[in-house]
């Protein structure tokens, strides 16, 4: 049986329902000549919010609900550095009443192997109270997220 890390290392672009391209910047590199760890979280947050705005009707300044990150982690497998172009794959592994668990993979354009795989968990809260709504997540958010939801059996993790 494959370990969880082996499964993540075997991820392909086809495992993700949404891909966003990102051109690395000189300032993304750290003194070790690879992308700084904090940039991965910046990119993961960016791909999630881009998807939410493009496919779930999120308008950050005024939507009645917004997502707060309550958990994140990342597994690094290989480095990437400027001037490479990154491709970020996004999928949803779980949707709860007001929460969503995302999986994000970072690939280098032109390379098959995944460079890192991260997980973000967001809880959608009402703008007025900053608390989860008793009614759960807005239907427009839920519908958009369901488009990239993978079944537990398909996700292999």
From TrEMBL:
UniProt-listed SUPFAM superfamilies: Thioesterase/thiol ester dehydrase-isomerase
* GO terms assigned for molecular function: fatty acyl-CoA hydrolase activity
Q: Which Gene3D superfamilies does this chain map to?
A: Hotdog Thioesterase
Q: Which InterPro entries match?
A: 4-hydroxybenzoyl-CoA_TE, HotDog_dom_sf
Q: Does the keyword Hydrolase apply?
A: yes
Q: Which UniProt keywords apply?
A: Hydrolase
Task: Give yes or no: UniProt keyword Hydrolase.
Answer: yes
Q: Which PANTHER family match?
A: 4-HYDROXYBENZOYL-COA THIOESTERASE FAMILY MEMBER, NOVEL THIOESTERASE SUPERFAMILY DOMAIN AND SAPOSIN A-TYPE DOMAIN CONTAINING PROTEIN (0610012H03RIK)
Q: Which family does it belong to?
A: Belongs to the 4-hydroxybenzoyl-CoA thioesterase family.
Q: What is this protein called?
A: HotDog domain-containing protein
- According to the entry, what is the taxonomic lineage of the organism? Eukaryota, Fungi, Dikarya, Ascomycota, Pezizomycotina
